[in-house]
Write a structure and sequence with these properties.
The protein is an alpha+beta fold. It is 50% helix and 22% strand. The longest helix has 17 residues.
């Protein structure tokens, strides 16, 4: 086995701490940062409250918190984007 092959094998076995598709607070925030300009344009925002296994708990803020379309924003916007970016996410729920 050449040195290059040995290095490639050990690197492949190392855990991917910076995997952009892993369910971490950093990756969730990075994905939400892509959505925040749209939420802010309507006077709202979103805050991550907790990651509980594969469930991301968020709080909609500002106008988004009291908007009649907030459920649609949460499920069709936020949840869909998070599930595309981070396959481990099973659901996004709103907490008050």
């Amino acid at each position: 086995m050449s040195t290059d092959t040995a290095n490639a094998t050990s690197e492949a076995a190392a855990p991917e701490a910076s995997d952009p598709r892993a369910l971490t607070l950093e990756n969730v925030e990075r994905t939400l940062d892509e959505l925040r300009p749209y939420l802010m344009a309507d006077g709202g925002n979103v805050e991550v409250v907790e990651i509980d296994g594969p469930i991301v708990k968020v709080r909609l803020q500002g106008a988004c918190g009291s908007c009649p379309s907030s459920t649609m924003t949460l499920k069709m916007g936020i949840e869909r984007k998070l599930r595309e970016a981070i396959p481990e996410v099973s659901e996004v729920v709103q907490v008050l």
